[in-house]
Amino acid sequence: SVEWSRAPQPVALHLKSLRAVRDKLPRGSYVIQVSLFDRLAGNALRWSKLEVERWNDVTSKVEHGGDHRDIEMDLDQSLRLVLPSQGMLAPSMCFIFELQCRYLVTILSK
């Protein structure tokens, strides 16, 4: 039998957009990775008995033009993670969102 009070909890986070980006980021492809940490500036949590790593997830690539007219990056994607059981959750646990550049597009001036 399964002890449900100790079972991991699946959760989905929906990311709508990243606003006020403008020319603060160079032109390129970006992804957002979300991970569960034991506390701010702490350690990323890892499942020891799950076959698939589900403590973190990554969006698909989103293009950004790098211009002041490119106000926001539309994501409209859901990320799925697994949380510890309700009894194992701690108030200090938090999601960490990381914006990662997959490739930059450079413009060569003549």
Describe it for me?
With 110 residues, the protein is mostly beta strands. Helix content is 0%, strand content 44%. The chain contains no helices and six strands. The chain has strands at residues 9-18, 28-37, 56-58, 62-64, 73-83, 94-104. Strands 2, 3, 4 and 6 form a four-stranded antiparallel beta sheet that branches. Strands 1-5 form a two-stranded antiparallel sheet. The radius of gyration is 18 Å and the shape is elongated.
Report mean pLDDT, rounded to a whole number: 85
Rg from alpha-carbon coordinates: 18 Å
Strand content: 35-45%
Secondary-structure-based class equals mainly beta
> Which blocks of ≥5 consecutive residues have pLDDT under 50?
none
Q: Major sheet, described briefly? A: 4 strands, antiparallel
Count of helix runs: 0
SS elements, strand count: 6
What overall form do the CA principal axes indicate?
elongated
Q: Terminal Cα separation, in Å?
A: 70 Å
What's the SSE pattern?
EEEEEE
Roughly what percent helix? under 10%
Record keyword descriptors for this entry:
elongated; 0% helix; 110 residues; mainly beta; 44% strand; four-stranded antiparallel β-sheet
Record the SSE blueprint.
Layout: E1 9-18, E2 28-37, E3 56-58, E4 62-64, E5 73-83, E6 94-104
Antiparallel strand pairs: 1-5, 2-3, 2-4, 2-6
